[in-house]
Amino acid sequence: MTTQITHADPEALATARGLAFEEWNIALLGEEYRDKFAAIYLETDDRKAIVVPSGQDPAERLHAVRQLLAHPAVTA
After folding, report:
1. Where are the chain's structural domains?
2. Per-residue pLDDT for 1 more than 70?
């Protein structure tokens, strides 16, 4: 059985590219960053991930993840 990926599921879009997907509690960030954090791409020696704020508006999240995945530096 195959899993169908919808283009409206940011987590599925990331994991289909071999990237981990995480939600972070933005209350831990400095106040000046909280309303500016939409999504980031993190890469370490052994892990690549898309990170989004928990509780983010679904449409904003989808837009941010699609933008990141379109960037040539984001690789799996």
Report:
1. 10-70
2. no
